[in-house]
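DM from R.C. (forwarded with permission)

"hey, sorry to bug you on a friday — could you get me a structure for this? deadline for the figure draft is monday and I only need the backbone to look sensible"
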Amino acid sequence: MSDHDQHPLFLPAVFVGGLVFGVGLAVSRMARPEVVLDFLQFEDFGLLLVMGGAATVTAATVTLAVKSGGTAPLTGRPYGRRLKEFDSNVLLGGGVFGIGWGLSGICPGAAYASLGVGNLPILWAIAGMFAGAYLQGWLRDAVRAADATEVGA
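My reply, with the result:
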């Protein structure tokens, strides 16, 4: 099933997933930058419990889905793991993400949920995330173009 002929319930299912995610972040108070900053300063370990619980549920669900040998009901694609190399991009990206997380006190998913709890100044962090992602894409394309020019020369 291609992206153009996906199941009509695919996007509503994505919306419901986001809704559940946002409610979970708001209820657990993880959509509040001060809670995240308290965690990063080793003053409150609630975020560790929330992340650990979420990772446990996700790991169990994905493991069961992969072992079932079935296909996803809305995409028709087989369940499987996406393997990614542990390379310098992962290390660099993780480091930069950590710096941004520490400076803003919020991660991307929680930033959007934070808007829902009335934290309008978080729009600055969201704008920074978009600008940073755009800058990274622009730099990646510039490096690829320079590499292609050197190879062709």
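R.C.: lifesaver. The chain is about 70% helix and 0% strand.
me: no worries. The mean pLDDT is 85.
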